[in-house]
Specification:
The structure is a homodimer of 149-residue chains. Chain A is an alpha+beta fold and 149 residues long. Chain A is 24% helix and 35% strand. Chain A has 4 helices and 5 strands; from the N terminus they run E-H-H-H-H-E-E-E-E. Chain A starts with 13 loop residues before the first strand and ends in a 5-residue tail after the last strand.
């Protein structure tokens, strides 16, 4: 298997990460444990809410994106974790049964000044239901430089 | 029970949200499902990593904060959800058994121009282990105005 190293994350490159379907039971179980607001755990409260139906916790939506990113990129890469990000947006609600398509775009890449062999990659996460963007985030990933670098 | 409305979120007000202890089994189960990077799911890989031990997924850490925020603030408030945030930072790793203390600080509050009765509150989330800040985030919450407003 080819390992993705820092040098492979060139600005403008887009990684398509595949799709996932929102499982109702898992969506509600997640909300019960981590985000038990009425519109995330109760059908009727969801209908009466600003979302118009039982809606996923935004943290669940983010976590669904993360799993696809780990499977398609991070666990095939010289990933060294993430210090965080600077944007986290849920422009539209996510509902049970939604099929979500994930992608990741490289925005910037630079070598660390203080730590040779380490590269910092700024990237944009996106999750779409059809043409509707339901989640996006901009954050930084740390990756080891390739052995040939 | 007094309901917290938009007017109660005055800039500078800090809400102490209590503490939670990181359960090892739950931490690993979360990572297996949503963030199965080796240093989040395997003890040895964690020791060999930049973190020095098996470390929590940052999304799990964020979700732990969220639960305390829901229990102590949102489910006692006129919460109408969140459109997102502009900062998400994990300055230090979180480990199994850590006791984490959560807080929320109101940074800004303004009434919506387009939607009367709706207020937008910019707030900072923080999670500490002792004096070490392990998670912080800045995002916006939407709250209904109080009936007396």
């Amino acid at each position: 298997m080819t390992t993705l190293a820092f040098e492979d994350f060139t600005p403008g490159r887009v990684f398509e990460l595949g799709t996932t379907v929102v499982d109702r039971d898992e969506m509600v179980a997640f909300a019960r444990r981590f985000d038990p607001q009425p519109f995330h755990v109760d059908e009727e409260a969801g209908k009466a809410s600003i979302f118009g139906a039982l809606a996923a916790s935004g943290w669940f939506t983010a976590a669904l994106w993360m799993r696809l990113y780990v499977d398609e990129v991070l666990n095939k890469a010289t990933s060294l974790g993430s210090p965080g990000g600077e944007e986290l947006v849920w422009p539209a609600p996510v509902f049970a049964g939604d099929e979500l398509r994930a992608s990741m775009e490289v925005l910037e890449a630079r070598s660390s000044r203080s730590r040779p062999g380490l590269g910092l990659v700024k990237l944009r996460a996106r999750l779409h239901r059809g043409d509707v963007l339901v989640f996006h985030s901009t954050f930084t990933g740390m990756f080891g430089a390739g052995e040939q670098a």
